[in-house]
Amino acid sequence: MPSLNCHQSFDEGVAMRAAYPLCQGEYKLREFRYRTDQILSELAYIREYKSGRVDRWGLQFCTPLCIYLWLRDVPENLSYMIAFNLLPSIKALRFNGIEEARITPVLSLAQRQAKDVVASLEDVRQTLRRRIGVEYNRMRSGDPTLEPLVKMAVCIADDALCALGLPPEREVL
After folding, report:
1. pTM of the prediction?
2. In whole angstroms, what is the distance from residue 75 CA to residue 157 CA?
3. Is residue 107 over pLDDT 90?
4. How confident is the model at residue 65, as a pLDDT?
5. Which of 84, 91, 108, 160 is deepest in the core (most CB within 10 A)?
């Protein structure tokens, strides 16, 4: 399968969601939040592992030998998740009883923010494809490029939850 860039992954997520529309929004929005928290936890652990502060046994989604593969795929996967789960879940909140008039401005803002995040993810994807060592060095120095972008996606979800009066701290199990 040819490698997709982040914009193509996003478009694929939009197309897939069109085939499987949501009938509830809050659950998928919280699930997106939970999944991005898992990505953040793994990125933090990889950062600590690459800095020599922890051993390899705490890795959840990759082995020490395939960290570079997992990191390399994060931008495309997150772009897909934004298109497939985040934005459609905000739109589907009308099925949770939230008025369309309240959803529309929140969705509009989320779409603009998501566009910026996907563009930034594509920049990082290109860097990771050329030289993964750059990200390892940035992780060791405490200035990773992926973590802030994942946090931006988390903020989009949290902002949507807060703007619509839904408490963001509830977890999906």
Report:
1. 0.92
2. 17
3. yes
4. 93
5. 160
